[in-house]
Each structure stands twice: as structure tokens, then as C-alpha cells.
Specification:
Blueprint: H1 2-30, E1 36-39, E2 42-46, H2 49-58, E3 66-77, E4 80-83, E5 90-93, E6 105-116, E7 122-132
Length: 133
């Protein structure tokens, strides 16, 4: 009888620990995605780079939608910016030249201008404003 109670207690303790670990991982993944931030009277939906890539791929993001992304620079090329974890085929284009080092923390306010999910998941967005964090 005592061995059964000890075994039940150990199983219950392990179950509680696993439950707590899973709930912590779920909470940390989303960040502020879905909330909004305002710039010049326009509301931009806050989205993480990972969510942006995932929603582009699944077709949940359309043309002319406004987002703000906080992320790290993966690379720049003249007027184009790539953000780490936002997808290699998702480009962000500015009217001015962008010269940032890889790994720089940035915030970009964007408006999606082209979405393609037919053969290759890809998008292009116009940068309304970018700033170093």
C-alpha cells in the first residue's frame, strides 16, 4: 500500500512539472503579436518575425496590411532589408538606402505590397519607418 502511494505521488509530481513546463513554453512564444502600435495616427499590428513568416506561408496575411516588427537584421542590400526569422523570401523595401550591420536590433513599420503563396511563399513590404532599438 505504501509503495502504491509513493508511486502515485511521484507520477503526480512529474505530471505537474510537465504541465508547468508546457504552459511556460506556450506563454513565451507569442510575445505581443496581435496587439497594435500607432504611428502618425495609423495603427500597425504588432507581429513577431516568426509569426510573420508563418502567416505569409499560410495565406493569413494579405496585401495592404500594416504591421510593426521588432527583430534582428539578417542582411541589407541597397534599399532591401531581411529580418532574421521572418523568412528568406520575405523582403522589406525602403525608399532610402539601408546600411545596418547583421544582428542590429530594429523596429520596422511596414505595409505589405506583394504576397505570393502559389509556388514559393514570398512577400514584399514597403518600409514606412525603421528605427534602431
Amino acid at each position: 500500500m505504501k509503495n502504491t502511494i509513493k508511486l502515485f505521488g511521484i507520477i503526480a509530481l512529474v505530471a505537474v512539472i510537465v504541465f508547468l513546463m508546457v504552459s511556460c513554453f506556450k506563454k513565451s512564444g507569442g510575445g505581443d503579436s496581435g496587439k497594435t502600435r500607432e504611428l502618425s495616427g495609423i495603427e500597425y499590428t504588432i507581429i513577431t518575425p516568426q509569426d510573420y513568416a508563418k502567416k505569409i506561408k499560410s495565406g493569413e496575411i494579405g496585401v495592404n496590411e500594416m504591421y510593426v516588427i521588432d527583430g534582428l537584421v539578417m542582411g541589407t542590400n541597397d534599399n532591401n532589408l531581411m529580418i532574421q526569422k521572418a523568412g528568406l523570401t520575405n523582403l522589406f523595401t525602403s525608399d532610402e538606402s539601408i546600411d545596418l550591420s547583421i544582428g542590429t536590433k530594429i523596429r520596422v513599420y511596414i505595409k505589405t505590397t506583394m504576397i505570393n503563396t502559389v509556388l514559393l511563399s514570398a512577400s514584399q513590404a514597403t518600409i514606412i519607418k525603421w528605427e534602431k532599438l
